Amino acid sequence: MTIPDQQALKIAVAKAAVAEVREGTILGVGTGSTVDCFIDELARAGVRLAAAVSSSRRTSTRLESLGVRVIGLEALKEPMDLYIDGADEIDARLCMIKGGGGALTQEKIVASAARRFICIVDASKRVEILGRFPLPCEVIASAITPVSWAIRALGGEPVLRSGVLTDNGHPILDVRGLQIEDPEAMERTLNQIPGIVTNGIFALRRADLALVASPAGVVRLQHN
Ligand code: 5RP
């Protein structure tokens, strides 16, 4: 797929996601190039939000530049109706790998404050088994060595993402070589390793709906 083709798919799925947003609500907004398209399409469609809760500085900057008020989670009185975000991989049960853009911790937190999670992707992100995309893990810098030992014991090969710190100031290990047959179990296991702040498996809180763009159109996938 050429890059212009992929960009067209991101815009198509972004437009489909805009149709899911109710005017006047507080929306949780993820991070990444697909979400950037979504923010642009939201503005183009003239949908007015009460406010947005953002998952990254990148997203906050884009939202604010288009006139959307960005608030913190502490300003919420109840869970948001909806969180919209992209993914690096998504399986048939709507479990995902996320964090390619480095915003996984805030994404997991903001997603946890919403009743519904809609994942927006192009069809290249669909997989049978998660793990071809290196699994991002945000780690405390001083813990990189023991965290790497623990990851190798699980069969993965951690690679430090060069020159990158998250919005929280932490490095990221991208873990290659994991076949994630049981995403919930692997997410739980990684959650137990001291020094991992967040792992990029989104299975314990998977998406409720995926909008998937291909040249044939945008399809809706629900849990199976
Ligand atoms: C950022 C993410 C993104 O949702 C993921 O990397 C997909 O990004 P893109 O839409 O650019 O392919 O998890 O942390």
N-to-C span? 28 Å
What string gives the helices and strands in order?
Answer: HEHEHEEEEHEEHEEHEEEE
CA radius of gyration: 17 Å
Count of DSSP E strands? 14
Strand order of the largest sheet: 3-2-1-4-7-13-14
Class per helix and strand makeup: alpha/beta
Helix count, per DSSP? 6
List keywords for this structure.
224 residues, alpha/beta, 6 helices, 2 domains, Rossmann fold, Alpha-Beta Plaits
Mind explaining what this structure looks like?
- With 224 residues, this protein is of the alpha/beta class.
- The chain folds into two domains: 3-126 and 204-222, Rossmann fold, CATH 3.40.50.1360; 135-199, Alpha-Beta Plaits.
- The chain has six helices and 14 strands.
- It has helices at residues 3-18, 33-44, 57-65, 104-112, 144-153, 183-191, and strands at 26-29, 51-54, 70-71, 80-85, 89-90, 96-97, 114-122, 135-139, 157-160, 172-176, 196-199, 201-202, 209-214, 217-222.
- The protein has a seven-stranded mixed β-sheet with strand order 3-2-1-4-7-13-14, with helices on both faces. Strands 9-10-8-11 form a four-stranded antiparallel β-sheet. It has a three-stranded antiparallel β-sheet with strand order 5-6-12, with helices on one face.
- β5 and β6 form a beta hairpin.
- It is globular, with a radius of gyration of 17 Å.
- Bound molecules: ribulose-5-phosphate.
- Ribulose-5-phosphate is lined by residues 30-34, 85-88, 98-104, 107.
